[in-house]
Amino acid sequence: MDKVLGLKLGADDYITKPFSLSELTARVQSLIRRYVVLGAVAEKPHCMAFGPLVIDTAHIRVTYNGENVSLTGKEYDLLYFLASNPGQIFTKKQIYQNVWQEDYAYDDNNIMVHIRRL
Fold first, then answer.
1. Structural domains in the chain (count)
2. What mean pLDDT do residues 62-80 have?
3. Of 30, 56, 80, 102, which shows the fewest CB atoms inside 10 Å?
4. Whether 85 and 118 share a structural domain
């Protein structure tokens, strides 16, 4: 329970006693690795990173584990919209109006098809 509470309060990691030196070393190395990867992206304000997924808004490009991901224009727009609003929940109508820039007239499967492809 302490682990869950610590993480919910904003901790990046939580380690319980007793712990081994090798576990502590591995956790520190993992945090350094994460800092280096996210630090490189932070220097590029036109990039958003979510683990191995990087959205480069300057070049309208998405990479996953360093490899380019082929997306249609609407798939990119949808991914960008969702990534720009982390933790928020949207109705299909809100997604449609923000991504397609049109009024949402009826309930079709268009949005779900695009989400499935992502």
1. 2
2. 92
3. 102
4. yes
Say what the pLDDT of residue 69 is.
93
Same domain, 29 and 55: no
Kindly state the tokens that stand for 88: 């928020």
Same domain, 30 and 68: no
Chain centroid to Cα 38, Å, comes to 12
Q: Are residues 49 and 107 in the same domain?
A: yes
pTM value surpassing 0.85? no
Beta bridge partners of residue 75, listed in sequence order: none
Query: pLDDT tens digit string along 26-59?
Result: 888 887 777 665 655 555 568 888 888 999 988 8
Residues of the domain holding 85: 45-118
| 22, 23, 27, 29 alpha-carbon torsion, rounded to 10° | 10
